[in-house]
User: What shape does this take?
Amino acid sequence: MTVLWGISFDATPISGVVVEFVKTARIFREQGYQVHLDLGYDVKADKNAFFRPYADEASLLPDWVRLGRVEGLDQVPGYDQQFVSDVLSEYVRDGEGARLLPRIEAAAEAISDRIVETWERHDVSFVMVENGTLPENITYTRALRAAVERYGKRHRLGRFVLWRDHDLMWQSEPGTGKYGTFPYPRTVAPVNSPYIHYLALHEEARRKTLEWVPDLENIDVLPNTFTHAPAVPGRRPAGFRAGFGIPEDAPLIARCTRIIPQKRIDRDIHLLARLAERVPGARLFVAGDTEEAPGEHARLVRLAETLGVGDRVVFGGRLAPHEADIGAASGDGWSVRDLLAHADLASFLTSYDYESYGNPIGEAIASRVPYLTTRYQLYDTVYGDKGFRAPVMELTDGDLPTASFVDSVAELILDERKREEMADFNHRLGKRHFGADRAGELLAELFLTPMGEHTRMSVVLPVYNEAANLPAVLTSLYEQRGADGPLDKSLYEIVLVDNNSTDDTVKIARRFAAEHPDLALHIVPEPEQGVACARKTGMDFASQRSARRGLPDSERRFYLVSADADCRVDERWLWELLTAMESGKAAIGVCDYYYSPEHFTGRPRLWDAIQRTLRCRAVTFSLFGGFPDGKGFAVEREAYEKVGGIEIFYQLQNGRFVNHLSDDWDFGILVRGSGEDIAYVPGSRVEINPRRVNHALDEVITGRAYGSDGIIVMRDIRMPEPEPDRGGEDLTEEEALQAWEFSIKDFTPKNTILPVLLTPSLLDDDGVIEFFGPSLAERLGQRIAEIKEEMRVVDFTPIHSYKTPSYRLYFEFADEIFARLRATVGEDIGYPPPLPECLRDVPPERFTEFVRYFCEDRESGEAHNYFGNGGVF
Assistant: This one.
């Protein structure tokens, strides 16, 4: 399982920082990552949670987020809440406290060790740091940076850290001088690292960061994003207002906030009091934890009583986050989304210099609720300059709502049409700037692991629970050789696509990468089960990274190479592929395959059937180039992109859609149909794992190894292999004949007919004419043209559209084709297998007509069953 580890420096169960983590982490979860989050209790001193065990915090987050923690921090000598507070006040703010420096360094080293130990234990693949640059705890930040460097170097992870700052010194209460003054010499400034990609929430934050650290690289803007699902009044959650004692017809102002002085909830209470005459009965709902700062809560309650609105201010407690999509967070299970569904307005009358972003505004916009706000320091940067419409309280006019501001709010509450227009306008604009899909697009663009400048090939290796085979496979890839010795490891990389493995597959891959640092190995998750999906993910990953390098394509071609996790490659596999494709300029290079004889000792009949199939393959692939097989082929990147890459097709099996297994063949057909050449590279050899035959020998014999009735799906074939010296039990003569007939029936339409069906010009090639003979070559060409005209099919590339004409041509020309195979491959190829029973009594003059009916039968699937579903030999 691929793991994302998050750490929030906010040290609270739910905050804007935590919610943003959840939203971004969801993108990783959809890609198959397991998500862990450290809430940062052991980081920040002023939240009074230092070393406090987790209790019910998990209930506030989606069930797919696992709360994590770095173990043993309470055992680090001298590291505690008081120490962190002293460092912040003396060393960071006042520039004194040099006596603390040795303790800072010692604690940072010990913490770094524990962070790395934790990541190793969880096999962490990606890390998200939220607000790590804000100097609340420079000791921990130093430790975290050291851990990133050590872990990244050990596992060759590329930029595996997303470091996102929501608040920085100049936008988090700068008037207090809490973090010193520019250029903040005691703060742990961002540093260039091959393992970190920095994110700012807006262009102003990025500009200021670069003013602070001018040479900082890899910093981009990723704004907070929101799911734009408007709150529909007709679908308000029932019981919400009654549960909090709010009349159904009472105008409602929502304030989602922490209840602390900096949030200035007193302004909302004064606003409510001043609205009393214009909007009688209006209510203010404050959603926040009343226990975080009990003194502030008590002060606000007294203020409401003093102003005569005590019965109209509802302190509703902590609600589930707007974006977290979770169940009960409070006793009644209400969320911010529920509150906004009932609200007429959302308020954000915060301090001038406290908020950097203003998530409650974004949540209101996304829920199609009008908002009101102060013009806090970054309001215009984030919202105002983009054109959002709202009553804005100008803080230059005083500390509390003015009469004109109160009038504008009252007018908005009383004018439903104006509220609707403002909400609609803001919702459309917000979706464009802050839509949830924007984060996915930016992350996909930003976090593609860079590719080496000299890399020419990416070997894509789909894996699912291959712990037993993986060490040998990776070793064979590592030990590749070139013309004069070991192949230069900078020429290629491995992209291992983990398809939901539950064994030690990923751990083994990481250990191999750590032990072989000279060969780049990337681990990419693919959550949709199926080798086709995994192969596509790996090839797309490699293709995009290759294209982003900026190297002139005219100088060097780049190749995507498919390998199989249960097959071993010969030591010159890659080199032979590379040199053949470079010299011939083919779009695809197809490997040669073989079985090791030692696995078939004592099974001569089975071995004979296999070898006859492979001998036929060698002849036809030499003539036509053949089609790629996932066990081993290479495709030039531009050709891959030209046809749109690998396409996943789906079939219905037992009422469910399943992905089709023949993605490699279908891809080859697309490339061939686009006019590109496919080259057979017999020197690039792959040894097939005998389990492909052994796992279900009865089904291999009967042509049902991967399904029937036209359904071709991947099956788990990890069965115990026969001992090499015994070889297992041989086939009977009858079984051997049946196995051969299904193998050759699968082989012939696909490997001798399909190439010329897709590319009739091959029939003009001298070698092809020699193989078929002039007469058969000419008649094949004529018949292909007739069938194309009859079927009115111009493009044979979509999946299965080639099968019907290939099957028809097989029946019409089988005797002649087999005669040519006997002459070219050997007499032991024999004669065509018996016809389907339904065709045996058809009058000769109507044979071609009924062949068509048989091959196009739309109900029984008999044609698919006759030809079998995959030549496992």
Q: What stands out?
A: Residues 733-758 form the longest helix (26 residues). Residues 523 and 838 are 51 Å apart (CA to CA). The chain has 30 helices and 23 strands. The chain has three domains: 2-221, 233-437, 457-867.
